[in-house]
């Protein structure tokens, strides 16, 4: 059995807790590896090594840090296919999708190569007579990332590229369901010349997470995962004096207005609902069909579904792979039954798809006439299930989104620029697409939702990432000529 270890001090480190977790290939149902689950003592040991490394790394010049980032970017680009194969073997998504995930993470490395520019402070000459004031950005020290199963490479890359470029040591606790990508990234960092201990991987479950959240030497925690855990991470981390950004779940709505280009809207709905088997935080899980577009739109989506090829992610023909675990597959299948029982119209039933073998496959499901009171509308299903809610008006569609618990992403499909502009003004969500179904911002903007999709105040990567992983210091300085000072107990004024 393959063993997935920790990575501490620039080398693979087998765990000592005596606890391991299983890792499966979702396309076959076979257990392929076991992953070490860290104890609190192992987390402490890793943090001590990272703390030492952080002291030195913050002294490395911006030029040196930028050089390491450039090299890391080159290695990642050259080894995209190897990393994609690892992602597919443990997550299940199709290889092209896995390579796409790496490509988006690569953009974060590219952004971070510009760290000399990004770390610039500001300078005010002559703030008072003979006095200059300037601000500098400094790293926090040891920072941690806790990441979900659905993007085992991209989400760690969102965090570690920015954190490391800013001069921090980064401790990653990846999902225990698909941890090998994290170890692959660790080897790339080492090859890129990153000093030992600046990038650490501790594998584990709640025990390791709790050790991170309460460790006095960890200054900040960046989290991505489901909403209940995000809330727990935010509350526990901040109660222990840490800076925390915790991104949670989603229920992303795509509004289709009557004037939308029907084929484009139907294609987008299918791509965004069923890509990666719906296991994307930016997946479209609800289409809000406004007015008389509903009937033709549901027909157009339904017509596309029989052609989708579902199978192992390693098969170049496959467009959609399995779900992450057998348990999750059963949970998603249960929602289809619930939707039917609640009165939704089951236009396509994913339970009827047949894929040979013991993989965790589920076909695509389309539910029409879904009402906001139904569980299939309220809950984040995180599977290949698309709900269609029919709305009479634009105002009704926007009210649905704004009343929803989540506010990650949303999209509008229309040919009316004025309506799109009004939507962008009205809607309560962190990321908006106009005729773009998955509006994941490019790396030089930042990624984050509103409401229960994000706890904390900074978004991830890009400018917000630099802000999150640095703290500012303001220096007030004067260089008086000898003999010009005097005793004055009054409050200093800026004259
Ligand atoms: P999850 O919340 O189950 O796990 C995320 C991380 O938290 C993992 O590292 C896991 O080990 C840890 N964890 C799980 N349970 C814990 C507990 N009780 N105590 C402490 N730590 C715990 O999420 P997941 O199933 O891996 O990922 C899917 C979820 O992530 C979905 O809800 C999805 O919407 C969300 N997600 C959000 C974004 C975003 O940007 N908002 C991006 C990707 C995924």
Commentary on this structure:
Residues 21-475 form the Aldehyde dehydrogenase domain. Keywords: NAD, Oxidoreductase. It is an enzyme of class 1 (oxidoreductase). Residues 1-29 are annotated as: Disordered. InterPro entries: Ald_DH/histidinol_DH, Ald_DH_C, Ald_DH_CS_CYS, Ald_DH_N, Aldehyde_DH_dom, MeMal-semiAld_DH. There is one protein chain. This protein is an alpha/beta fold. The protein folds into two domains: 2-248 and 453-475, Aldehyde Dehydrogenase, Chain A, domain 1, CATH 3.40.605.10; 252-434, Aldehyde Dehydrogenase, Chain A, domain 2 (3-Layer(aba) Sandwich), CATH 3.40.309.10. It has 16 helices and 23 strands. The chain has helices spanning 40-57, 62-78, 80-91, 95-112, 115-118, 154-165, 180-191, 206-214, 227-239, 262-274, 294-304, 326-342, 375-378, 394-403, 417-426, 462-468, and strands at 2-4, 6-8, 11-13, 20-25, 30-36, 122-128, 131-139, 142-146, 169-173, 199-201, 218-224, 243-247, 252-256, 284-290, 345-348, 365-368, 385-391, 406-407, 409-413, 431-434, 450-451, 454-455, 470-478. It has a seven-stranded mixed sheet, sandwiched between helices. α15 links the parallel β19 (409-413) and β20 (431-434). α1 crosses α8, α2 (62-78) packs antiparallel against α4 (95-112) and α3 packs across α4 (95-112). The longest helix is centred in the first third of the chain and has 18 residues, at 40-57. The chain starts with a strand and ends in a 17-residue tail after the last strand. 53% of the residues are buried. The model has no long low-confidence stretch (mean pLDDT 98). It binds nicotinamide-adenine-dinucleotide.
């Amino acid at each position: 059995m393959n063993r997935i270890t920790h990575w501490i001090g620039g080398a693979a480190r087998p765990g000592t807790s005596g606890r391991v977790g299983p890792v499966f290939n979702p396309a076959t149902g076979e257990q392929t590896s076991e992953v070490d689950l860290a104890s609190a003592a192992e987390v402490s040991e890793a943090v001590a090594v990272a703390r030492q490394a952080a002291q030195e790394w913050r002294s490395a010049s911006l030029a040196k840090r930028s050089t390491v980032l450039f090299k890391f970017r080159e290695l990642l680009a050259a080894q995209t296919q190897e990393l994609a194969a690892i992602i597919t073997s443990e997550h299940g998504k199709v290889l092209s999708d896995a390579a796409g995930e790496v490509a988006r993470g690569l953009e974060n490395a590219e952004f971070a190569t510009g760290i000399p520019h990004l770390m610039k402070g500001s300078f005010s000459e002559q703030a008072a007579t003979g006095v200059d004031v300037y601000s500098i950005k400094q790293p926090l020290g040891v920072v941690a990332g806790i990441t979900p199963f659905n993007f085992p490479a991209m989400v760690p890359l969102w965090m570690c590229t920015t954190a490391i470029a800013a001069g921090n040591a980064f401790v990653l606790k990846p999902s225990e369901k698909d941890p090998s990508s994290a170890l692959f990234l660790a080897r790339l960092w080492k090859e890129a010349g990153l000093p030992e201990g600046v990038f650490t991987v501790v594998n584990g479950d709640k025990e390791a997470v709790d050790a991170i959240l309460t460790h006095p030497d960890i200054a900040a925690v960046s989290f991505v995962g489901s909403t209940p855990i995000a809330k727990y991470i935010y509350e526990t981390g901040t109660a222990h004096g840490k800076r925390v950004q915790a991104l949670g779940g989603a229920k992303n709505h795509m509004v289709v207005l009557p004037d939308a280009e029907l084929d484009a809207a139907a294609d987008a709905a299918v791509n965004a609902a069923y890509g990666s088997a719906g296991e994307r935080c930016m997946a479209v899980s609800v289409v809000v069909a406004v007015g008389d577009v509903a009937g033709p739109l549901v027909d157009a989506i339904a017509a596309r579904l029989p052609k989708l090829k579902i199978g192992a992610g390693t098969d170049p023909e496959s467009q959609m792979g399995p779900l992450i675990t057998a348990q999750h597959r059963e949970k998603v299948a249960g929602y289809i039954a619930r939707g039917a029982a609640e009165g939704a119209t089951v236009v396509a039933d994913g339970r009827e798809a047949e894929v040979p073998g013991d993989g965790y496959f589920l076909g695509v499901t389309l539910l029409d006439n879904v009402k906001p009171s139904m569980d299939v509308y309220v809950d984040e299903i995180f599977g290949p299930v698309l709900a269609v809610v029919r709305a009479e008006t634009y105002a009704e569609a926007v009210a649905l989104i704004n009343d929803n618990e989540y506010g990650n992403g949303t999209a509008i499909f229309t040919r009316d620029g004025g309506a799109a502009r009004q939507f962008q003004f009205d809607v309560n969500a962190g990321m908006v697409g106009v005729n773009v179904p998955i509006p994941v911002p490019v790396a030089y903007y930042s990624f984050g939702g509103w409401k229960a999709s994000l706890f904390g105040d900074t978004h991830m990567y890009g400018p917000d990432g630099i802000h999150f992983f640095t703290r500012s210091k303001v220096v007030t300085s004067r260089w008086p000529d000898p003999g010009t000072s005097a005793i004055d107990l009054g409050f200093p004024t800026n004259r």
